[in-house]
Amino acid sequence: KAGVTQTPRYLIKTRGQQVTLSCSPISGHRSVSWYQQTPGQGLQFLFEYFSETQRNKGNFPGRFSGRQFSNSRSEMNVSTLELGDSALYLCASSLSVKGAPEDYGYTFGSGTRLTVV
Amino acid sequence: GQQLNQSPQSMFIQEGEDVSMNCTSSSIFNTWLWYKQDPGEGPVLLIALYKAGELTSNGRLTAQFGITRKDSFLNISASIPSDVGIYFCAGLNYGGSQGNLIFGKGTKLSVKP
Description:
- The complex is a heterodimer.
- Chain A has no helices and eleven strands.
- Chain A is mostly beta strands.
- Helices cover 0% and strands 51% of the residues of chain B.
- Chain B has no helices and eleven strands.
- The radius of gyration of chain B is 14 Å and the shape is globular.
- At the A-B interface, β4, β5 and β10 of A face β4, β5, β9 and β10 of B.
């Protein structure tokens, strides 16, 4: 069974530009969450989407946004990039249905390494 | 944002030694997860704990969910070079409007062959 796929793996952007990252979850998984990982702050939650609706949101500015499509694929967008946005962006998917707690297990993709110059 | 207190931050051990790391929180969780991350990759789930007091093993790895629901530990027995990496604990409260994973800052494990 295919894992979580994130594209692209690497990106270099200039300050002020915008960027879109893509995540394809494991087949059948309806929840997609996004995390930012930096050396200083560690892994920080950005937002979670379930059935095309944002269900949960972390403490990031409005420049960070996302969406989910009917096939559960998700994209996140960062506008007006700043140097501090350089990070590894990770996507995780889960079944996320009420039932056995094991359904909430998260599987991560390999991430997109974004460098802002 | 909220984070868990994970210790130690790093450790160097001899191959064959046992390793222990732990995670504490000021908040309770109903799920504790332990992940390992290799350079350039995403975290990989090692062990998931769903009940307070639960002790679960996965090969040479053993983890426990603290009875207060505010802590967890991970033990690695007889370490080998491929155990090198960063280990993260994560707490989660599932159910209803599903919560998000709260991560520790990681324990970097280096093994001397």
